Amino acid sequence: MPPKPDAFQAMRDRFADVRNRIETSARACGRSPEEITLVAISKTHSAETMKTAIDLGAKDLGENRVQEAGEKIAELGRNAARWHLVGHLQTNKARRAVSLFDVIHSLDSAGLAERLDRLCAEEGRQSLDVLVQVDLGGEVTKSGIETAELPVLLSMLKQCNRLSLVGLMTLPPYFENPDCSRPFFKTLRELRDELQAQGHFGSAKGELSMGMSHVSWALITAIAVIVVLIVLRLIANQVDLNPFGWSSINIRRLTDPVIVPVRRTLARMTVDPKYAPLVAILAAILLGWFALQLISSIANTLAGTMISLGAHSIIATMGYLLYGLLGLYSLLIFIRIILSWGMVGYSNRLMRFLVNATEPLLGPLRRMVPPVGVFDISPIVAFIVVWLLQAAVAGTLLRGWQLIFFA
Asked: Which pTM does this prediction carry?
């Protein structure tokens, strides 16, 4: 089904705005706008939305995952657009990537280059454009080859008859201020110029593919640090480290704010407190997931609301607000379950708020849905009810509108 006229207009306006900004920026630095390739990142978007983008003139589409791209390409057609793989490519997905994509932006090892070249020969493909992903930020969460290892990969590419090196790609660290990413882009451009002078791109100048990932890595890093510190505490306990040593004291000081409340909770539940570090690790991961989901839900709701307001669509605005509130409600149910497992009482202010907010749904469900043994399954039923309501909103008020802006 084609998108609603107001959704189509909103996408057309955004598309035109991006093109105008590209043209203005290109001319400001003495370049032709035709030199810039706009790749519309279509990951997580439906084939229906992508069809609209293609109709508006999007000739290049970027996908993050091979399997997801395969399903969309099968529906839209291999020749509907120029398909780019911008996400990390696993070696076991390389054969399918060779048949699906026109350009692969994430070549990061000599072994992968050799495999892609061999698969091109086996699949009868004469040429495959690739960009080398360079790791300039040193982040363990992102792929890419380090600059010190780049000569090995470049040497392998010279031996590959069916791979055509057309440029470099990087994903800089995430900063709240986008201007902080400029030094990484500048470094990649300088590296490109150096390789171009050495003839690695043939007669071409060498393309630059430079994107940004807006996942809250600061939050993920904080959770990872907590988990690592708790693991170090477990190791220190097992190896019988001096409890009054500098390292032992500081590890306890950093982890006690997490471990002590968990230990007290386990004691109230008559569970051996020695399991407190393991339970704390699980709690940190669950709470981190909750926080990420909450941030994503708020960001997506705000983005959708602003876009629908700009398109003067009251129905879509109501849809985005309702969709976001339902998502937030499901998260409130989730955090109530977690706190109840921790035996947090009604006297706690947060727990009291959660009970007052979720009991209008959980209360009637608890009376209608019998427990399974000693387990109350009404929260699971509540999740299903909220999910069905969200699907109903997406299929009615938001049909044809984008649902995910920040993945």
From this structure: 0.57
Write out pLDDT tens, residues 63-121. 989 999 999 999 999 999 999 999 889 888 999 999 999 999 999 999 999 999 999 99
CATH topology of domain 5-210: TIM Barrel (3.20.20)
Contact between 62 and 89 under an 8 Å Cβ cutoff? The reply is no
Q: For the chain, where do the domains classified as CATH 3.20.20.10 start and end?
A: 5-210
